[in-house]
Design a protein that fits this description.
The chain is an alpha+beta fold. It is built from 9 helices and 11 strands. It has a 4-stranded mixed sheet. Strands 4-5-7 form a 3-stranded mixed sheet, covered by helices on one side.
Length: 304
Amino acid sequence: MAGRSPIIWVLACLAALAAGGPTRAQDTAAQESAHRRAVLATLPQDAAKRVFGRATSPAPGPAQAIGGYTRGCLAGGVELPADGPDWQVMRPSRGRAWGHPLLVAFLERLAATAAQQADWPGLLIGDMAQPRGGPMLTGHASHQLGIEADIWLTPMPDRRLSPAERDEMPALDLVRPDGYDIDPKVWRPADRELLETAAKSPGVARIFVNPAIKRALCREAGADRGWLRLIRPWWEHRRHFHLRLSCPTGDHECANQAPPPPGDGCNELAWWFTPQALHPKPGPPAPPLRVSQLPPACAALVER
């Protein structure tokens, strides 16, 4: 995104936000259900959101990420177990704990590593992908290839949460209400350690956080700053970070995003704290993608 004019940048970002819909990552089951009903009432029958959002089982065959992060799908997806030694899946009623085996293995490793190296008692895993990937009925514009996951910035409790708790429990907000910085009453050194551990993990393409969190990381990082390059500012992301992996080796129909610009990105934050960025005016919603607008291999997945 480097080099774009602020106006073009804002328009592109607002279009992406509109495409993602009104749902927030931390919405409860009731809120999510209401959003889904509202979206389904307006979508054409061949809308990719409708078709992929209603799939309840993975597409058979070998695992393959197909297309781009915001226009693609997933074959051979696997479901992350709801409980592991160092993680718990949140918002289970959404049915979005699916991913490419590469992502599932990555999350299991990261959970164990964070417990050992980042003083993090366990990961609370939010949205990953739908069983066949593709555009979601609510929320994200990405999460379509099965190689992205939302990880809460709330440490895992020292007990197993019930399904109802996982669907209703709020997440910690690490950012001040005005959006200019982290909340010092909530932010802990372990938050930085977790993000650093994730960013240094092999295979990570980007990690999206709130600009205030990026600002805090820039302030607190020591001489080893190379990992900051992968930490990118984005709207919201006050309560979780968005992990994006690179395309799996051998998945030739998967399109990687261009690498982040060189440097730690800490001198590129000023715009994010302008009124224009802190209080963006939403643009008109983007027209829904049709199945025919996805890669041909994606249309084949939902015909099975």
